[in-house]
Amino acid sequence: MSAPLTPESAARVAKGDALPTFEVRLTRGDLVRYAGASGDLNPIHWSDRVATVAGLPGVIAHGMLSMALAGRVLTAWTGDPAAVRSYGTRFTRPVVVPDDDEGATVELGGTVAEVREEDGVRTAVVDLKAVFDGRTVLGRARAEVVLPQ
């Protein structure tokens, strides 16, 4: 990942700019830790048997975990989690996490869709992406962030 925006670099942010990309590897251990932290103990996130009975291809990552990982693109870019004004998405495909040491790799990134200025405050609307196994797992993933001044 690159360094967060500075007031000088934020002044140059424009529509079409790509945010830094990175990959995250998720393992079953990560899912267990997230389940404990979030309180979402649904067995589709840890039991192959239950996931299969539910019609899933295997144990899947929590949707909110996938959303949070994509949100890291924003916080790494701005350097300030409080800069995120809004963030919404739709969950379009699951991230299937195998029971092995490799886990599942999710590719994360984003693109500036619009830059606005109101009352001296510059904001950027960012379209985020999260890709697993060559396919998008978040749809309409969009956030608004305040740019450093």
UniProtKB/TrEMBL annotation:
Domain MaoC-like, first and last residues per copy: 23-120
Database matches in Pfam families: MaoC_dehydratas
Segments passing through the bilayer: none
Family: Belongs to the enoyl-CoA hydratase/isomerase family.
PANTHER family per the UniProt record, alphabetical: (3R)-HYDROXYACYL-ACP DEHYDRATASE SUBUNIT HADB (PTHR43841:SF3), 3-HYDROXYACYL-THIOESTER DEHYDRATASE HTDX-RELATED (PTHR43841)
Annotated protein name in UniProt: MaoC family dehydratase
Annotated source species: Pseudonocardia kongjuensis
Source lineage: Bacteria, Bacillati, Actinomycetota, Actinomycetes, Pseudonocardiales
